[in-house]
Write a structure and sequence with these properties.
alpha+beta, 32% helix, 33% strand, nine-stranded mixed sheet
């Protein structure tokens, strides 16, 4: 049995340079970081009305009822990721790339979870792979909705720690014609944490998040303290991160136009 949905809003995320993280840290320590990242994403997505469909390696596949909710969830997740600290192998913030697309999709119950199939799912995944570090690509199909367009404008306004990236037309394998998209990028990737503290904490105060002072670092090793995952000064209390509904895991800047070819 399957169900056809007229307008599913689908989100794909992926950790940037996760392969090198596993190579540098080892499977166990790297997965501890990946799990922290899952907790942040699951919380932000479910809080904004989304549903985690499944995880694929360190990637997350989620669905939303509206483009506005998907955009708000992704922006919140990108900001919250800075609260889990820096990667011990690079001493940089963990970064993700994200793609959001919407359209008709086929929903099929598999292993107790409603999974999505069809060209909309394929495009959402390929749009994600075209994004750069700490960037979210949003297709024009999503931004045709007025509420989603307003949310995109809010996210890329001066009061938020994001900037709009150039609009683009992507040639995707298996897709007829070009897919138009716009993007936004988290500014924290190019700033020191101290430079972001005002806007970061201001955002969370407006959103009503609760924070606790945390002095220690979390070990990401198998008994070796030399590789620790250093947390930042503030970390959100788990209760404020929401509960995921389902998963396979148990635990304006002036714009220009560019072309992307994704295979």
């Amino acid at each position: 049995q399957f169900l056809s949905i007229e307008n599913a809003v689908l989100v794909f995320t992926d950790i940037v340079e996760s392969t090198s993280m596993y190579a540098n840290l080892g499977d166990g320590p790297a997965f501890k970081i990946v799990r922290k990242h899952f907790q942040v994403l699951f919380g932000a997505f479910t809080k904004n009305g989304g549903r985690v469909v499944k995880t694929i390696g360190d990637a997350v596949f989620a669905s939303f009822n509206t483009g506005k909710a998907a955009l708000a969830a992704v922006a919140e997740a990108m900001i919250l990721l800075s609260s889990i600290g820096v990667r011990p192998d690079t001493q940089k913030q963990l970064e993700i790339r994200v793609g959001i697309h919407c359209g008709r999709a086929t929903v099929v119950p598999l292993n107790g979870v409603n999974d999505y199939f069809g060209q909309t799912t394929n495009i959402a995944a390929r749009v994600q792979s075209a994004a750069k570090s700490s960037e979210c690509f949003v297709t024009e199909s999503v931004l045709e909705d007025d509420d989603a367009a307003l949310e995109f404008a809010r996210i890329t306004s001066d009061s938020m720690p994001f900037k709009a990236t150039p609009s683009t037309e992507m040639t995707l394998k298996g897709v007829d014609g070009k897919v138009k998209a716009r993007g936004f990028r988290w500014l924290g990737r190019s700033r020191r944490e101290s430079d972001l503290s005002g806007s970061f904490m201001g955002y969370h105060n407006r959103k009503g998040h609760k924070f606790a002072r945390r002095e220690e670092s979390s070990s990401c090793t198998n008994g070796d303290d030399s590789d620790s995952f250093v947390t930042s000064s503030f970390i959100e209390r788990p209760a404020a991160m929401g509960k995921r509904r389902s998963s396979t895991m148990d635990t304006p800047q002036e714009e220009t136009t560019s072309d992307h070819v994704v295979y």
